[in-house]
Amino acid sequence: MNAKAVKEVLKAHVGRAYAPYSGFPVVALVEAEGEVFLGVNVENASFPLSQCAERNAVAAMVLAGKRRLERVHVYSPKGPIPPCGGCRQVLMEFGGPEVEVVLHGPEEEVRTTLGALLPLAFRL
Ligand code: THU
Question: What does this chain do (predicted)?
Answer without folding.
Answer: This enzyme scavenges exogenous and endogenous cytidine and 2'-deoxycytidine for UMP synthesis.
